[in-house]
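To whoever is on call:

I kicked off a structure prediction for a single chain this morning and the downstream step that reads the tokens threw a length-mismatch warning. I double-checked the sequence; it's 399 residues and nothing unusual in it as far as I can see. Pasting both halves so you can look.
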Amino acid sequence: AEALRPNETFESEAILPMTQIYLVRHAEAEGNLYRRIHGHYDSLITDLGYRQIAALAHRFESIHVDAVYSSDLFRTRTTAGAIYKPKGLPLVTRKALREVSMGVWEDRPWGEVHRTDAQQLAWFNATDARWGVEGGETFQRLRERISAAIRQIARNHPGQTVAVVSHGTAIRNALAVFQGMSIEESAALDHSDNTAVSLLEFEGEAARVVFHDDNSHLPEEISTFARQKWWKQDTGALADANLWFRPLDMERESDLYRQCRGEAWLNIHGSWDYYDGDAFARDALFQWRDDPRAVSCVMLGDEVAGLVQMDIRRDADKGVGYIPFVYMMPAYRKQGLGVQLIGEAVSVYRPLGRKYLRLRCAPDNLVAQRFYRRYGFRKVAEAAGTRVPLDIMEKYIGH
């Protein structure tokens, strides 16, 4: 090498410390399961979601982490527990890490929005910059918010490793920004499974996506995506069909209610013994007059797929939301649709301050028993004074 002249020095670039950000989507939550729109809506983790959290904890056992951040919503804070709790770290929450705000769409069924706002829904699904609903964010605003929040976290932890737990659409848009993709180009990015992990590396302001949307820690039986088809090519499967709900007019459509009640009784009990259709219909009429949502048609497109009935007053003083009747038409049973009816009941009762859903189920109705237990109901008692044996089953829906 040439000798240096007097007073001459090498110009060298400063070596910047590298910060690693593990970007994690929350575990399966009610919106994923009930097929409802949950952006800023503060939903709970499902039973399957807690199994995903356990798998996530195992994945991070051998990964050094210096700090853990999450959005301030329950589903991300709970998921973050898989990382910060075993490592004895505090959790730092940031509202800026929330999911996109869905405005007036919040907690509405996807099937309802498809019916009432199809163009906006198409734009949302296509990550089209034209998407925008009253009270909600735009994709541009989301991209600015989430990328700025992650960059600030990287600045706060130079040379360290940080886990950040956020939400599906927020993470997808962040990954697009850090790969230099426009809003339109980001539509080509994959969707992420619940608890999927992405890794970002920051050197100063320069960001690199090392890998994204990795769900290799999830066995297929606890992967949300393993049982969903909406994010793949359309297969025509009903399991991903999005339902909507309309009040059943008990003064003009009571025959439909009686038909469904009778078919359910005969299917469960095998005879008409003890059946009192008039009493069932009178109760439903009273509840419907009290609140039109109390008796609702379950709709799949233009077809009636079932009924869900709620007694808004019963056991209200105990913090209970009572469900007298849950019914799917024979053609729509065993298609993975019934859980959306539970989601409708949660949507009605939670704003009323109810902490539990409660219903009664015949102990020998094994199909229904398996269904309710699968989605968090547990037997708490046996009903007294009923015409046939019934278990009282309950599900916690409070925070």
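Update from on-call: the warning came from a stale cache, not from the record. Cleared it. Sanity check on the structure: The chain is about 30% helix and 20% strand.
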